[in-house]
UniProtKB/TrEMBL annotation, chain A:
Mg(2+) 1 binds at E98, N538. This is Phosphoribosylformylglycinamidine synthase subunit PurL. It comes from Natribacillus halophilus. Residues 207-360, 575-707 form the PurM-like C-terminal domain. The gene is purL. GO terms for cellular component: cytoplasm. HAMAP family: PurL_2 (MF_00420). One of its GO terms (molecular function) is ATP binding. Its main location: cytoplasm.
TrEMBL record, chain B:
The keyword Cytoplasm applies. The lineage of its organism: Bacteria, Bacillati, Bacillota, Bacilli, Bacillales. It is found in: Cytoplasm. Its main location: cytoplasm. Its EC number is 6.3.5.3, 3.5.1.2. The keyword Ribonucleoprotein does not apply. InterPro entries: Class_I_gatase-like, PRibForGlyAmidine_synth_PurQ. This is Phosphoribosylformylglycinamidine synthase subunit PurQ. GO terms for cellular component: cytoplasm. Part of the FGAM synthase complex composed of 1 PurL, 1 PurQ and 2 PurS subunits. Part of the phosphoribosylformylglycinamidine synthase complex involved in the purines biosynthetic pathway. Catalyzes the ATP-dependent conversion of formylglycinamide ribonucleotide (FGAR) and glutamine to yield formylglycinamidine ribonucleotide (FGAM) and glutamate. The FGAM synthase complex is composed of three subunits. PurQ produces an ammonia molecule by converting glutamine to glutamate. PurL transfers the ammonia molecule to FGAR to form FGAM in an ATP-dependent manner.
Amino acid sequence: MSLQLEPTAEEIHAERLYADIGVKDHEYERIVQLMGRKPNYTEIGLFSVLWSEHCSYKHSKPLLKQFPSTAPHVLQGPGEGAGVVDIGDGQAVVFKVESHNHPSAVEPYQGAATGVGGILRDVFSMGARPIALLNSLRFGPLTTPRMRYLFEEVVAGISGYGNCVGVPTVGGEIQFDDTYDGNPLVNAMCIGLIDQNDLQKGIAAGVGNTVMYVGAATGRDGIHGATFASEELNEDSADKRPSVQVGDPFTEKRVLEACLEVAKSDALVGIQDMGAAGLTSSAAEMASKAGTGIAMNLDLVPQRETGMTPYEMMLSESQERMLLVVEKGKETEIEVICEKWDLETAAIGTVKEDMRLTLTFHGDVVADVPVTALTDEAPVYDVPSEEPADFREHQQRPVWQPQSSDYNETLLQLLSQPTIANKEWVYDQYDHMVQTNTVVMPGSDAAVLRIRGTEKALATSMDGNSRYIALDPKEGGKIAIAEAARNIICSGAQPLALTDCLNYGSPEEPSIYWQMEQSTAGMSEACRTFDTPVVSGNVSLYNETNGEAIYPTPVVGMVGLVEQLDHVTTQPFKQAGDVIYIIGEAEPAWGGSELQLVEDGKISGQVPTMDLELEQARQQQVLAAIRAGLVQSAHDIAEGGLAVALAECVMGTELGADVSMKDDVAELFAETQSRYVISVAVEDAEAFEQAIPAARCYGTVTDEKVLRMKTTEGQKLIEQPTDELHHVWKGAIPCFLKSKA
Amino acid sequence: MKAAVIVFPGSNCDTDMSYALSDFTDAETVDLVPYTAESVAEYDAIFLPGGFSYGDYLRSGAIARFAPVMQSVIAEAEQGKTVLGICNGFQILLEAGLLPGAMKRNKDLKYICRTVDVKVENADTRFSGEYEKGETLRIPIAHGEGNYECDGQTYETLKKNNRIVFTYEADVNGSTGQIAGITNEAGNVLGMMPHPERAMETLLGSEDGRRLFTSVYRHWRDTHVVTT
């Protein structure tokens, strides 16, 4: 079989062939300047992927710099496979979130599955055992067959991969909105646990050391995946299906076990996942971090197809592959471990002093590029930003007024919104118990995992309400962080740090860049207030279909520490007679609320404000009360307001609630921030009121299975049997999926 | 009691099973035994854990039955040694012919992970001696292919000989007779889809699985330890 004919360096220049693989004219000129000559086909391929937004963050770097990323408890911030945070006793948590939006839009099962596979490798390449997966998903309304197909297949892909590897999927969140109709979002997060002594890094140190390839053979799948991820979607995107990789969780499981053994070996110098941009990025980044070069002989790369060109091998994103740097002479140690797991290994190269990436193939040098040109010299763009006209317009609108008068009906309507409805249909398909550490299963504010052999536990949650951010990116950015922290607090943990996935439209559009600037500024401010640094993350831009961008959707994955297992708290009410307290006053700000969406079918106006100092103070008060043993249940008031929050506290229990309040629709449904529903045993009520003076008693938990909300004058506002609420809430998503229309 | 937990490539409940045995029974040894082992004759009880052996890309368990260790597992089972397969372990025992019937995909064609009510149908086995007949246990299931299928005659035989040890209280996956666990004719081999090793601590939701492992241990002690 003969090699396909590749264009020459001259042809690439003359015919602007670089543009087809996402390289801009001025970027091409810069590449020629850096290399001192015109790049050949393989070389321009290397640049095209490493200089893509996905790998280089060329449009987002200045924004990422504003995030706080250090703290005494942060052992590793952004820059490695995943962030690392100290949790005491010589242990650390390792975590990161990654997007797989574009692949999932065209091939939902494999797109979502390989998203899970990639984030697992980011974590175990650090030497940490993955102990939990989460995901944050965004879809259009489930009213079209196509969207139901995408939703079902994404969930099946996550389930198929995560379950097989044996890492529990313990939590996540899903929102449905028109804005994601053409461009669903699939963000996957992984948390690992490690003894700090075992931490590994992705560096190619030690001139003369051996570069080893471990795992699945390289095929032609996923070529230009990173470039594809950095483009807008359009009607031709289905043709990009070959850019989507195919996952093999069985191999992943073996690679995982082998890597964790390898990590304990003295022979290992550095290790990195061949993720986005495959062999290219892992080799270039490891060399760049060590200030070395790498020479590789591509004839030695394990291949599962015949006739692959250097270009294809370097750009393939075949899954379940790792690149290792191994001390010269100790290769056998690694080979023995991999053989035990029935994995292919190959010594494919050597660490060099020359700081160049040199590739040979069939005896010829096919690429010879300075490593820094590929990585450090990648362009960084200072992009113009411009406040969009509709922002002012929303700010200046008169306050929106709900029309709702039948509150019973409104509550049932809210509970059946897919964003609020019970997600059991989803998480039942995820093995959330394997490894037997899951203390709080999916469905509460945060998932909780005990740390075996200690009295501690980890709490984790993912959040990011893009509706607020769409109307007011700065305030919405603050809310995203605050809500994640609040969910961690409600579970009895202190928030430690977070990872973020920044999903936006095209940064080349000034109004979208403005959204990015404003929302990340709001997020940074909140991170500083809560002392929760951003230790890792991912940027996914160009989430647009036919020129229409998604709402700005930064997603936050937070991790917190439960000091004592008996601090673990969940949202359902626990026993009749307990006193129900509400912390925080409702205010009539409806912009981006679930009620506004239900009534108007769109969002408008001003979002709830976020007072970070107040938020922080309340969080710490609530956590202190939980630690003092005063709290039976805790739940934050979020989408759908107090009525929905109270319903969530009774549904699935044998209990009800009797509460009274002002006759005000905001009291029932407003999404005012920094608010909680907390139930307290009668004997602890006095101590609780002293601990949190702002807490107001609203009523009691009852053993009659009815949720009753009335005015202080005794007039009925809402009265619904717990079972009826539960029925509506639980049935909503399965009902959508059964509809054939 | 010396216990072996077999680790197939793709097993992922092996450590959970090992914790269940070492933390909650008095077993003197609990070893993770690789699929390549030639013999498990030195062990008193053999446990096949859950997971996705060989990825389960074919029928679940269809490849694992050919793993080198299985010859010895089958030989030990035929000699009356205790063999317990949970979830993927059950599927492997079916494929290996140690138990009758087969697994189909769940009736809803979806993976299910959920804690369900499991009824003890027979408390007179070495696996269920510490339960009460008729008792309802809270035990998690986590499987995509747990829809147990057998022909009418097999089902009648299983029923008549009290070989149905556990049933689901509700029809969760379409299994014939809502079967959750069965033994072989001799009663020394049990296969079950629910995961008792995930129900060992109230902290994690239920400790109803404990007595399955203590039953196995007690049976071994009663038959092997001479009390003076």
